[in-house]
Every structure is written in C-alpha cells, then in structure tokens.
Design goal:
Distance between the termini: 16 Å
Strand content: 25-35%
Oligomer: single chain
Mean pLDDT: 89
Radius of gyration: 20 Å
Length: 290
C-alpha cells in the first residue's frame, strides 16, 4: 500500500495491534512477510486483532524516514523520524547503524510530547528514545542526562523502537525509579508492555495502541524491475490476452502464511503467464522486491 502526501511517497510496511512483534520476536528480522494480505489497505486493526508485515519492511531500499501513526492520530499528524542516510525499514528500526536526524525536534521534550499524544500519557522523568535496546545519544536527549550509560531504571525493559520515561518528573534529569516503555516492539514483562497478548504496540501503563508503520520512499530511484500496470487479484491465466502485459499478480508460495511475491504477467506463446523476477511496483501500485 502506497500513499502520496504533499509530494512525498509513503509505503505502509507494518500494522501492529497484537503480539507477533514484541521485543525479541524473530519476525522483526526474519526477512519474510507476515499476513501480507492485510497490507493492501490502511485499515487500522482492532486491539489484539492482528499484526501484519509487508516484505517491503525488509527489502525496500532508499527509505529516508519512518512515520508512526496510531489510532489516536491522523496520517497527517503522526510522528515522523528522519534519518541521515537511507536504508530499509528493517535496518532503520531494528539497528543503530544509521544515525537519526535531528529534524522534527527528535529526542527533545517537544518530541516526547508528540510521542505521548500518539501512544498515551505515561511517566515524565527523563524521557529519551530507545532503538534496538540502546538509548539514542546522537541527537542527544534533551531530558535524560545519563543516556550514554545506557542503563534502564528500576523495572525498565528494553524495546525495539520506543521512548522510555521514569516515575516522577524531571527534564533535564538522570533516569530514576522505574522506566516505562512507550512505542513498538515492547517487552511482555512488567514495565515494558506488561502483557504478552498485545506488546507489539500497547502498554499496561500507557494504554492500548494500534499502529501503522509507514516508510518514506523515493520511487523515482527504483524504476528497474518495476511492475507494469494494475494489480490483478488472481492468476495471470485468468486475464484476457490483450490485458496480460499490463497487469501483475501476487503469487503465493506458502498457502498457510500467504507468503509470496509480486510477479509481472507476460504473453508467452499465446498464453498469459506470471513471468518473474519479482518486481517493484509503480508509485501508485505495489513496491515489493524479492
């Protein structure tokens, strides 16, 4: 699913409302799509309804920003995190290899307030951003003075992509008391998400959140291997021959998991067949690359 907004192209890469993407879930880095049939629209799942992931989460190169949209905010008002260099959504979210940009007041108190409005109100002492189990120290957090020590306070638990804040108040201040996780990829344990049934993006001390993860993508850089025409929900052989070369299909390779790839339909010896390799879509269509 691709969305155009104010001259930008955003690819929907994840939907989170359940527990398939809690902290330490192998699905964050397994290189596979997950319930990809749920990724063709912008429907926000109900609480604990499902988690879903596009193959684009792992394969889409050239992503320069991540937008986190919860059920509390519109797409336009959702929090954006920019990066100094492009990468795949997986690399940007699950590693610390690419530096986060200071744009949009990242890691400042005002950014924390925006994050709270997305996920719900939590604690207020020394809030700071955590990515792939580590506090982000560049850009340095405005409110947490000891982030470089990378120590969680009290019962605090690490997360994939979240903010942490402790009991009480303080900005600037050292971390103290008990850090509470707010974001995505939370621990099921106490002071993380706190519930193994919904820790992909909800927290017992914050509230139930249902989250769409968007990736800012420059489709103009990815024209090689581009899928032509419209997506066809079926097989190439069901198309009229005149329509064959202007459609592509989602070919399922694992019926139990609905995993597969987008392939271009092509006319071959008077028949319409799915002729690989798997391809990107146009800006208005699919963007999967196997």
């Amino acid at each position: 699913m691709v969305r155009h907004s104010e001259g930008e192209t955003w690819a929907l890469v994840m939907k989170l409302s359940k527990n398939d993407f809690c902290h330490n879930s192998p699905r964050w880095t397994d290189g596979k799509e997950f319930k990809a049939e749920k990724m063709f629209d912008t429907h926000i799942p109900k609480h604990k309804e499902y988690d879903a992931k596009s193959l684009a989460f792992h394969k889409l190169e050239g992503v320069s920003a991540i937008k986190i949209q919860t059920n509390r905010k519109s797409f336009k008002d959702a929090v954006v995190i920019d990066f100094e260099e492009p990468g795949t959504p997986e690399k940007l979210i699950t590693t610390n290899d690419i530096k986060i940009s200071p744009k949009h007041d990242f890691n400042k108190k005002v950014f924390w307030k925006k994050w709270e409005h997305e996920f719900g109100h939590s604690r207020q002492r020394a809030p700071a951003f955590m990515r792939a189990d580590k506090f982000v120290t560049d850009p340095a957090p405005e409110c947490r003075t000891d982030a470089a020590e990378n120590k969680l306070s009290g019962c605090g638990k690490a997360c994939v992509f979240c903010m942490q804040a402790g009991d009480g108040n303080g900005c600037p201040a050292k971390g103290a008391h008990n850090d509470i996780s707010v974001g995505i990829g939370l621990s099921q344990s106490f002071c993380g998400g706190g519930n193994r049934d919904d820790c992909s993006s909800s927290g017992d001390w914050v509230g139930d959140s249902r989250t769409l993860v968007w990736a800012k993508w420059s489709c103009k850089k990815h024209e090689v291997g581009q899928c032509l025409g419209s997506r066809h929900f079926g097989i190439c052989g069901e198309l009229e021959l005149d329509d064959c070369d202007t459609h592509f299909v989602h070919v399922v390779t694992d019926e139990d998991k609905a995993e597969g790839a987008f392939l271009q339909c092509a006319s071959v010896d008077g028949q319409c067949v799915a002729k690989g390799p798997a391809c990107f879509g146009s800006c208005a269509n699919a963007f999967i690359k196997a």
